[in-house]
Amino acid sequence: MTDRYEVVVVGGGAAGLSAALVLGRARRQVLVVDAGEPRNAPAAHMQGYLSRDGMSPAEFLAEGRLEIQRYGVDLVRDRAVDVARDDADEFDVTLASGRSVHARRLVVATGLADELPSVPGVAERFGRDVLHCPYCHGWEVRDQAFGVLATSPMSVHQALIVTQWSKDVTLFLHTVAESELSDEDLRHLATAGVHVVPGEVAGLVIDDDRLTGVRLADGTAHVRDVLFVAPRAVPQTGLLEQLGAELRETPFGAYPVVDPTGLTTVPGVWAAGNAMGFAEQVVNAAAGGYRAGATINGELLMSDLESALHG
Ligand SMILES: Cc1cc2nc3c(=O)[nH]c(=O)nc-3n(C[C@H](O)[C@H](O)[C@H](O)COP(=O)(O)OP(=O)(O)OC[C@H]3O[C@@H](n4cnc5c(N)ncnc54)[C@H](O)[C@@H]3O)c2cc1C
């Protein structure tokens, strides 16, 4: 069975739902395909979204899904696995269930995956007391004993940033040799009061389901309440790559080249949210989705007017 939609939105996080909301309200026929694995699922609270600060991420998305359905948007729990552009520059999207849908325009809002350092316990505690983003969690853990797990010299920046939330910060060099840090790094760390500990981290110390320390390979343990880590960002750009979209390398992964509305280098295909950029927090992702949706509505209108005029 092939269903025809004006717009198919792949991904039902903040970016995709927001694109669908504006398109639904513009009376477009829209399908959202969502695999249901939003990036912030491990976190109990979503912070920094004006008027929604502290809301549960699951509740935020559940409300979003209700809102789009009010405007007749279809929503399916499925995964888009294949996409192809046809001769009319429109799109056939194949879902994991085997269903196939046709779209005149496509929004790719598939987010990114966090690849965590392979220290035992880190994945299990991610989003609780193993954290990556001080803007998301810093206030809640302010003034506690912070550790930062270095995985590259860029972790120096993370250690410096988190001193805004606690003056008790230890940088565990882990896989980074002290010689990889520049003199300027060392000066900044010393001036900010960051304690630097060389040696590989072997695991976490957990008491009563709470992080209480960090254990090094040499057996020494350091009392810490919170550990900041830097996951490797893996943007979910597979569908964009299938369509031949141009990507640009950044220190945080390869993201599509887009114009200010999120239009990729493939005509008719927009990207929004973390699939478009690393720094897209929930509020930015929602804004990007909205911008893409509104742009697509206008673009479809003009395209139909031109066809009516010129055939
Ligand atoms: C632990 C943690 C805590 C965070 N806390 C905050 C916070 O407090 N405040 C904040 O602003 N930001 C926070 N973030 C960042 C936040 O998660 C992102 O900004 C936000 O999720 C980006 O929204 P998005 O719509 O781009 O992607 P996502 O929310 O990740 O949504 C993408 C959706 O697309 C689906 N998908 C992927 N591929 C396919 C496919 N092929 N077919 C169908 N569906 C697909 C996924 O399953 C998912 O449901 C946090 C991140 C983490 C990891």
Automatic annotation (TrEMBL):
Q: Where is the FAD/NAD(P)-binding domain?
A: 5-289
Catalytic reactions on record: [thioredoxin]-dithiol + NADP(+) = [thioredoxin]-disulfide + NADPH + H(+)
Q: Origin, by domain of life? A: Bacteria
Keywords per UniProt: Flavoprotein, Oxidoreductase
List, alphabetically, the PANTHER family matched.
THIOREDOXIN REDUCTASE 1-RELATED-RELATED
Q: What is this protein called?
A: NAD(P)/FAD-dependent oxidoreductase
Which organism was this protein described from?
A: Streptomyces ureilyticus
Q: What lineage is this protein's organism placed in?
A: Bacteria, Bacillati, Actinomycetota, Actinomycetes, Kitasatosporales
